Amino acid sequence: MKITSRFTVAVHTLLVIYIFGKECKTTSDFIAASVQVNPVVIRRTLLSLKAAGMIDVKAGSGGASIIKDLKDITLYDVYKAVDAVENSNGGIFHFHENPNPHCPVGRNIHSVLDSHLADAQTAMENELKKITLYQLVAELNENL
Q: Do the strands 63-66 and 55-58 form a parallel or antiparallel pair, or are they unpaired?
Protein backbone atom coordinates (compact mmCIF):
# COMPACT_ATOMS: atom_id res chain seq x y z
CA MET A 1 0.00 0.00 0.00
CA LYS A 2 1.48 3.39 0.80
CA ILE A 3 3.91 4.73 3.31
CA THR A 4 1.97 6.97 5.69
CA SER A 5 2.95 10.49 6.63
CA ARG A 6 4.01 9.10 10.03
CA PHE A 7 7.41 8.48 8.45
CA THR A 8 8.06 12.03 7.21
CA VAL A 9 6.49 13.52 10.36
CA ALA A 10 8.91 11.44 12.46
CA VAL A 11 11.94 12.52 10.42
CA HIS A 12 10.80 16.15 10.65
CA THR A 13 10.29 15.73 14.40
CA LEU A 14 13.78 14.34 14.94
CA LEU A 15 15.36 17.15 12.94
CA VAL A 16 13.44 19.79 14.92
CA ILE A 17 14.53 18.19 18.19
CA TYR A 18 18.16 18.20 17.09
CA ILE A 19 18.25 21.68 15.54
CA PHE A 20 16.31 23.50 18.28
CA GLY A 21 16.91 21.27 21.31
CA LYS A 22 19.99 23.16 22.48
CA GLU A 23 18.17 26.50 22.40
CA CYS A 24 14.75 25.68 23.79
CA LYS A 25 12.47 22.93 25.01
CA THR A 26 11.25 20.89 22.07
CA THR A 27 7.75 20.19 23.29
CA SER A 28 5.01 18.59 21.22
CA ASP A 29 3.47 22.05 20.72
CA PHE A 30 6.78 23.48 19.51
CA ILE A 31 7.38 20.58 17.11
CA ALA A 32 3.77 20.64 15.90
CA ALA A 33 4.19 24.30 14.91
CA SER A 34 7.03 23.33 12.57
CA VAL A 35 5.32 20.24 11.15
CA GLN A 36 1.93 22.01 11.08
CA VAL A 37 0.01 19.15 12.61
CA ASN A 38 -1.95 18.73 15.81
CA PRO A 39 0.33 18.24 18.86
CA VAL A 40 -1.44 14.91 19.49
CA VAL A 41 0.12 13.60 16.26
CA ILE A 42 3.54 14.65 17.56
CA ARG A 43 2.95 13.05 20.96
CA ARG A 44 2.15 9.73 19.25
CA THR A 45 5.26 10.10 17.12
CA LEU A 46 7.39 10.84 20.17
CA LEU A 47 6.08 7.72 21.90
CA SER A 48 7.11 5.57 18.93
CA LEU A 49 10.55 7.17 18.71
CA LYS A 50 11.04 6.77 22.45
CA ALA A 51 10.03 3.10 22.30
CA ALA A 52 12.64 2.64 19.55
CA GLY A 53 15.32 4.10 21.84
CA MET A 54 16.00 7.20 19.74
CA ILE A 55 14.76 9.91 22.08
CA ASP A 56 13.94 10.70 25.67
CA VAL A 57 10.86 12.70 26.60
CA LYS A 58 10.59 14.61 29.85
CA ALA A 59 7.18 14.53 31.51
CA GLY A 60 4.99 17.60 31.31
CA SER A 61 6.48 20.34 29.18
CA GLY A 62 10.08 19.21 29.58
CA GLY A 63 10.54 18.51 25.89
CA ALA A 64 12.28 15.78 23.96
CA SER A 65 15.95 15.08 23.31
CA ILE A 66 17.78 12.68 21.03
CA ILE A 67 19.68 10.04 23.02
CA LYS A 68 21.17 8.04 20.17
CA ASP A 69 24.03 9.20 17.97
CA LEU A 70 22.69 10.68 14.74
CA LYS A 71 25.15 8.54 12.79
CA ASP A 72 23.40 5.48 14.26
CA ILE A 73 19.86 6.47 13.23
CA THR A 74 18.96 5.65 9.66
CA LEU A 75 15.83 6.54 7.77
CA TYR A 76 15.05 2.83 7.83
CA ASP A 77 15.17 2.90 11.64
CA VAL A 78 12.64 5.73 11.67
CA TYR A 79 10.50 3.98 9.05
CA LYS A 80 10.33 0.86 11.23
CA ALA A 81 9.88 2.77 14.50
CA VAL A 82 6.71 4.52 13.38
CA ASP A 83 5.20 1.55 11.53
CA ALA A 84 4.99 3.64 8.38
CA VAL A 85 3.34 1.08 6.10
CA GLU A 86 -0.43 1.38 5.98
CA ASN A 87 -1.49 -2.27 5.89
CA SER A 88 -1.21 -5.30 8.09
CA ASN A 89 1.21 -7.42 6.07
CA GLY A 90 4.02 -4.86 6.17
CA GLY A 91 4.26 -4.50 2.43
CA ILE A 92 4.18 -1.14 0.69
CA PHE A 93 2.12 -2.57 -2.18
CA HIS A 94 -1.48 -3.51 -1.61
CA PHE A 95 -2.80 -6.23 -3.85
CA HIS A 96 -6.41 -6.24 -5.00
CA GLU A 97 -8.23 -8.77 -2.90
CA ASN A 98 -9.83 -11.26 -5.27
CA PRO A 99 -8.26 -11.76 -8.67
CA ASN A 100 -10.45 -14.02 -10.79
CA PRO A 101 -9.17 -17.61 -10.43
CA HIS A 102 -10.87 -18.54 -13.71
CA CYS A 103 -8.90 -15.95 -15.69
CA PRO A 104 -5.35 -16.97 -16.70
CA VAL A 105 -4.06 -13.54 -15.64
CA GLY A 106 -6.02 -13.46 -12.38
CA ARG A 107 -4.98 -17.00 -11.53
CA ASN A 108 -1.26 -16.23 -12.04
CA ILE A 109 -0.91 -12.56 -11.11
CA HIS A 110 0.55 -13.28 -7.68
CA SER A 111 3.11 -15.75 -9.01
CA VAL A 112 4.40 -13.28 -11.61
CA LEU A 113 4.21 -10.06 -9.61
CA ASP A 114 4.74 -10.78 -5.90
CA SER A 115 8.49 -11.38 -6.03
CA HIS A 116 9.07 -8.24 -8.11
CA LEU A 117 7.11 -6.11 -5.67
CA ALA A 118 9.00 -7.64 -2.75
CA ASP A 119 12.28 -6.87 -4.53
CA ALA A 120 11.19 -3.26 -5.09
CA GLN A 121 10.32 -2.85 -1.42
CA THR A 122 13.64 -4.39 -0.37
CA ALA A 123 15.51 -2.01 -2.67
CA MET A 124 13.69 0.98 -1.19
CA GLU A 125 14.35 -0.19 2.36
CA ASN A 126 18.03 -0.76 1.54
CA GLU A 127 18.25 2.83 0.31
CA LEU A 128 16.70 4.06 3.56
CA LYS A 129 19.37 2.11 5.48
CA LYS A 130 22.10 4.14 3.74
CA ILE A 131 20.88 7.55 4.92
CA THR A 132 21.51 8.69 8.48
CA LEU A 133 20.06 11.58 10.41
CA TYR A 134 23.61 12.91 10.62
CA GLN A 135 23.59 13.26 6.82
CA LEU A 136 20.21 14.97 6.86
CA VAL A 137 21.37 17.45 9.49
CA ALA A 138 24.42 18.25 7.35
CA GLU A 139 22.18 18.84 4.32
CA LEU A 140 19.77 20.90 6.39
CA ASN A 141 22.60 23.05 7.75
CA GLU A 142 23.67 23.83 4.18
CA ASN A 143 20.23 25.36 3.61
CA LEU A 144 19.93 27.31 6.87
A: antiparallel
Going by C-alpha positions, the residue among 143, 141, 144, 4 that lies closest to residue 70 is 141
- CA angle (85, 90, 94) in 5-degree steps: 80
CA-nearest of 141, 133, 31, 21 to 81 is 133
Q: Does any domain span residue 82?
A: yes
> Amino acid identity, residue 118?
A
Plot region of 112 (φ>0 → left; ψ -120 to 50 → alpha; else → beta)? alpha
Residue 10 near residue 81 (C-beta atoms within 8 A) = yes
| Assigned domain for 1 exists | no
CATH of the domain at 67: 1.10.10.10
Mean pLDDT by 10 residues, the chain (144 residues): 86 98 94 97 97 93 93 97 75 84 94 93 96 97 90
What is the model's pTM?
0.88
**pLDDT tens across 42-60, in order?**
999 999 999 999 999 988 7
